[in-house]
């Protein structure tokens, strides 16, 4: 992780040094929903030039968070992307797909595996509004040429190709540069959901992507007290020009208090992500031979083409996630969850402390059992979001729960 990126996160929201003595060390949240003006001319001028006039357009806390998140995606100090923070990760997806659709193209290519609600938004409300979706399935055991598979379904009607760099929930890695090249070849843009990797481990814009999405609810917020998202567009992309106006119209913007909490979470995000990332990889290897485990889903254990791709695109690791197929299907998973001591079951990820989720019940519950099997999501699959606890503590808790559950 570059020092610039760590610094931008660690100092997020800090009031710059200098100026008057006795200033706040950290910018307070700016909560007002609008500003007032002395007369019509002043209001007219503000409506033209100052987005902070009304909170749906912008706000100091929101603008500070957007500038920080844009800096995290701009390694080496190039031109920063346009960033808009949104009411959730889903709202960021809606905003980015809407901005891409301003091109007049009416089809999305969705690369699976991916978060279940991503597909649900595309094939549900967006399909009803006239946006078609073509799904491209990458085999779970890796080795597929993702670029060729996307190119095979491309065409002049494709607005955007949507892909996750580290996929939810099986933690496979997708060849984003190849997918982005295939998108470009048909005149479409490539949108990377980088929620699992975070900007500290992967920067999509440096790998050919045009648009980036993070759920701020997860590792970046990091404390399970924020629901938010960010939509970023490369300054070169046509969609960047649409993002501001589209965001103002859709109105699914982040509240300033959530922006302020996210800035606070961001300050420790590099440390939390580094720590969870290292612990997840170590636990993956340590649990691989456990008798209660059917399969460990992590490139550190999977090896082969997936591990090679992970080493090429994510040399510092894939992030703080670890998925495990436990013996005994749903009832086995239920027993393991009940036997866990401090690791809590919740339909989310990215907390300071370790949590566990059951994809078949949560992120992928809208799929039929048959589809889940085809996607490699078994009823015994547990997805762990590794926090900052000691590795030894987590290993002891997990081995004991797996033994009790098996
Ligand atoms: C990979 C991924 N992208 C996007 C989202 C959506 O984020 P949010 O719940 O903030 O809308 C999630 C939520 O779990 C996710 O896992």
UniProtKB/TrEMBL annotation:
Pfam families noted in UniProt: Cys_Met_Meta_PP
Keywords: Pyridoxal phosphate
Gene Ontology biological process terms from the UniProt entry: cysteine biosynthetic process via cystathionine; transsulfuration
Cofactor: pyridoxal 5'-phosphate
Protein name (Swiss-Prot/TrEMBL): Cystathionine gamma-synthase
Modified residues (N6-(pyridoxal phosphate)lysine): 218
Gene3D superfamilies: Aspartate Aminotransferase, domain 1, Type I PLP-dependent aspartate aminotransferase-like (Major domain)
PANTHER family (alphabetical): CYSTATHIONINE GAMMA-LYASE-RELATED, TRANS-SULFURATION ENZYME FAMILY MEMBER
Membrane-spanning ranges: none
InterPro entries: Cys/Met-Metab_PyrdxlP-dep_enz, PyrdxlP-dep_Trfase, PyrdxlP-dep_Trfase_major, PyrdxlP-dep_Trfase_small
CC per GO annotation: cytoplasm
Source organism, top-level taxon: Bacteria
Any one GO molecular function term: pyridoxal phosphate binding
Protein family according to the UniProt entry: Belongs to the trans-sulfuration enzymes family.
């Amino acid at each position: 992780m570059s020092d610039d990126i760590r610094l931008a996160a660690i100092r997020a929201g800090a009031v710059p040094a200098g100026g008057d003595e006795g200033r706040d060390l950290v910018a307070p949240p700016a909560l007002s929903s609008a500003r007032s003006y002395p007369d019509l001319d002043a209001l007219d001028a503000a409506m033209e030039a100052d987005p902070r006039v009304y909170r749906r357009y912008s706000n100091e806390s929101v603008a500070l968070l957007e500038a920080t998140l844009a800096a995290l995606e701009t390694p080496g100090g190039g031109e920063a992307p346009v960033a808009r923070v949104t009411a959730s990760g889903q709202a960021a997806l809606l905003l980015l797909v809407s901005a891409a659709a301003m091109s007049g193209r009416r089809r999305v290519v969705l690369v699976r595996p991916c978060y279940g609600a991503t597909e649900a938004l595309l094939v549900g409300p967006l399909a009803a509004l006239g946006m078609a979706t073509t799904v491209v399935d990458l085999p779970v055991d890796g080795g597929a040429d993702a670029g060729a598979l996307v190119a095979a379904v491309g065409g002049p009607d494709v607005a955007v190709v949507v892909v996750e760099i580290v996929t939810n929930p099986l933690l496979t890695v997708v060849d984003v540069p190849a997918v982005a090249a295939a998108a470009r070849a048909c005149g479409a843009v490539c949108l990377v959901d980088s929620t699992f990797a975070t900007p500290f481990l992967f920067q999509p814009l440096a790998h050919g992507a045009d648009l980036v999405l993070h759920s701020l609810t997860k590792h970046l917020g990091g404390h399970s007290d924020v629901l938010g998202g960010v939509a970023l567009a490369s300054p070169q992309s046509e969609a960047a020009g649409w993002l501001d106006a589209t965001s103002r119209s859709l109105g699914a913007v982040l509240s300033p208090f959530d922006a302020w909490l996210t800035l606070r979470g961001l300050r420790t995000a590099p440390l939390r992500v580094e720590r969870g990332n290292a612990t997840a990889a170590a636990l993956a290897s340590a649990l691989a031979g456990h008798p209660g485990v059917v399969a460990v889903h992590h490139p550190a254990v999977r090896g082969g083409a997936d591990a090679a791709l992970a080493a090429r695109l994510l040399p510092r690791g894939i992030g703080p996630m670890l998925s495990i197929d436990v013996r005994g299907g749903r009832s086995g998973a239920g027993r393991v969850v009940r036997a866990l001591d401090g690791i809590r079951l919740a339909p989310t990820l990215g907390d300071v402390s370790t949590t566990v989720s059951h994809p078949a019940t949560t992120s992928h519950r809208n799929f039929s059992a048959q589809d889940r099997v085809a996607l490699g999501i078994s009823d015994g699959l547990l997805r762990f979001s590794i926090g900052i606890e000691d590795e030894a503590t987590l290993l002891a808790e997990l081995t004991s729960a797996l033994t009790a559950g098996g």
